[in-house]
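Sequence in, structure out.
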Amino acid sequence: MKKFIIVFAVVLIGAGAGIPYFNGLIMENIVRRSMQNINQAYADSGSDIKLEIQEYERGFSRSIIEWKIDLGAISNIYGIDEILFIEEAEHGYKGVVSETRLDKNQWFTDFVENQLDGKNPVHIHTVYALAGDMVTTVDMDAFSLDNGNGVKGNIKPATWTFSMDKAFQNMGSRLSWQGCEVPDKLVVAGVGFNTRMKKISNHIWAGQSLFNLAGFHAADKGEQVDVKQARLETHVDYDKDKNQLSVSMGLGCDLLMGNNIEPLKDAFVRIGVNHMDAQGYERIAQLYAAMVKNMMKAMGERGFHPDRMERIIQQQMAEKKTRIIAEAEKLLKTGLEIRISDLKASLPQGKISGDFSLSLRKDMTLAQFRPIMMQPKLALDVFSLHSRLSLPESLADRNPDLMELVIWGKQTGLLTKTGTNLTHEVQTLDGKLVLNQKTIMTYNKSRGETVSKTARKTVSKGWAHIGSIAGAILGLLGGTFVMWKIHPILGIITFFGGLRYLLTVYPMT
């Protein structure tokens, strides 16, 4: 019996001593599989960014990995072709902990030596758990930069954490950066980013993201801009039972003001597309991915420049327009909704608030919309519409037609005076189109009603305008989500570029 206990104890000790080695094996499996999954995700999104292991030395209790990120065409933005990493991992009993260095990058070592007096501010720490999950934390110390012309910038500390499970089905990221400052010119304070996403398919990740900025101040040659508590949030919800996708993006701030900008306070708006057919969305995402791949290739050949990039995007949109329209048609199913909600803002003239929703009551094709142009009343059988807006009277002074418009032979402008504000409300209700509590159009499907040529012309323009806005919003959100997955910078460029286009094409007054 005593001999058995001794043998058993020796076996346990031997097994325990081998745990670090087996944890090293687990880590190698995680690293290689993670890189394969990430590369596949980039390829599916149309990007040519690629991760590659150059050398992997696994010992009993320690591993050294040399790997790199090839930035592909996006290197034209950063001016760097690749980023090299040296990762040194210690195999423990509970998992593996590694430290990663960047000192094999000449551009990085030159920067640290010449700009930071040899003090490396970047520290990368990764934990590989026994369950196969991976958590990487990047800490950045504070440092200062001098552009050589007496302008000095102070970069404050930051921490970025990224987590991923072994199946590459769940990812999370959190950024906390105290900001930066260029005395008398620029202040960026309190930058944060937080996201949790779950993989549904190669092109669909459900979850939410939040970007916030505590403060921003820029001043130059007497001009200045101030922003306080800005935020950008995204939501992607997936209904597995209905195989439907709903996406939304919210943008707001507590204060926006400047020399040539009227103070804007407590502002927010959320733009969303709900109940999309998930397969239809994925087909459109694949087309966008192909466009991005061609754009990246073109940028690599011609070099990066904002104006050039805009021309490349226009060219790609022109080439893919027909296919995108064909695939977008497949999204026209019952319940599809365009929604603008939680719109609010405070201006010196007063407060603005409103919301808008337009949804399909039945499955449609593009061809089925044509009769509506001849008989606008048919739209009441196709769409559900609700729109509400309240704004200070002074904002509409330049356009009195908004209050005097004659629709369907009735004097009922788009806006009506309520106290010190102008208000607008339109909705479809029981086969009627009601504007500011006045019925301006009715439709009885069983009677097959017809309308006059003048009425058709007046109302069809309104429906066409609503349809064009809805289509533009759908394109804006789809493009932004695809671009954001490739790279956050591309997502931001797409969103604000598209938003600028919408505000230009569809002004309020």
